[in-house]
From TrEMBL:
Catalytic activity: dCTP + H2O = dCMP + diphosphate + H(+)
Entry's Gene Ontology BP terms: dCTP catabolic process; DNA protection
Protein keywords: Cytoplasm, Hydrolase, Magnesium, Metal-binding
EC numbers for this chain: 3.6.1.12
Any single Pfam family the record assigns to this protein: MazG-like
GO molecular function, one term: magnesium ion binding
UniProt name for this protein: dCTP pyrophosphatase 1
Organism: Micromonas commoda (strain RCC299 / NOUM17 / CCMP2709) (Picoplanktonic green alga)
Location relative to the cell: Cytoplasm, Cytosol
InterPro entries (alphabetical): DCTPP
Domain of life where this protein originates: Eukaryota
């Protein structure tokens, strides 16, 4: 699921949502874009992204992917984009304002994981309550 046309750099979630809705409408795909179908497509894209990392081990998947060639990094970018696009489309089909949901979740996480209690720890939030 790739949007075509203008450059996507600088677009916000709402801009992407509108562009994806238009992309689907132009092709008559709304009837297929049920929450269930979009979720399954999203899971499939996460699987494709996972395959790129499968069997590499932590040492070969360090931040920045320094040992990956440009072709492999491009594939990671393509799959990340697919995941994001399906996530935005799914939120739209569920009539969830993803920007508001993200802002609310970030606030909840800040409350669940106060810096002074969790810095440097990977423990679950219940440890800090």
């Amino acid at each position: 699921m790739h949007a075509s046309g203008d450059s996507l750099s600088g677009l916000n979630l709402e801009g992407l949502r509108v562009q994806l809705a238009s992309f689907a409408a132009e092709r008559g795909w709304e009837k297929f874009h049920t929450p269930r179908n979009l979720l399954l497509a999203l899971v499939g894209e996460v699987g494709e992204l996972s395959e790129l990392f499968q069997w590499r081990g932590d040492e070969d998947a360090r931040p920045g992917l320094p040992d990956w060639d440009d072709v492999a990094k491009t594939r990671v970018g393509d799959e990340l984009a697919d995941v994001l696009l399906y996530l935005i489309r799914l939120a739209d089909a569920c009539e969830i304002d993803l920007s508001q949901a993200v802002a609310a979740k970030l606030q909840k996480n800040a409350t669940k994981y106060p810096v002074q209690k969790c810095f440097g720890s990977s423990a679950k939030y219940t440890t800090f309550q």
